[in-house]
Amino acid sequence: MSFDNHVIQLNDTKEMPMLGLGVYKATDDGELKQAVSSAVALGYRLIDTASFYKNEEGVGKAIKALDIPREELFVTTKIWNTAQRIGDIEDSFNRSLERLGLDYVDLYMIHWPVPGCFCDTWKTMEKLQAAGKIKSLGVSNFSIQDLEFLMCFPP
Fold this sequence. Notes:
Elements: E1 7-9, E2 15-17, E3 20-22, H1 29-41, E4 46-48, H2 56-64, E5 74-79, H3 81-85, H4 89-100, E6 105-110, H5 118-130, E7 134-139, H6 144-152
Helix pairs in contact: 1-2, 2-4
């Protein structure tokens, strides 16, 4: 089975697979390797993790063990609330990238809209994107009100 035609175009015109493997609560490296390997064998190309899941290193090892080029995968991860609160956005991202063992992520998201923080988080993420470390930016768990506020925040 192939999901090649099952993509969605993001606002930045990049394409993201519509179906993917989420690895929330999977922490055992062997379990992650099996899950990622099986998903890819079935045609999945999107792997979703987050710093909060505490499994980015295992996901990175699983990706490295695959027999397909990195460019054929769409890897997402997310920044956690604590990093936003203390203004540790860039270092938090770089730690995620290091744990994943990747040169870039396809989509980096704000996991939750921390009040008073998420606009500054977004601005820092834009700088990381401009540096080529992030292909696309996104959000998770945002309400319409949070999105409207973020869209109105001056660059």
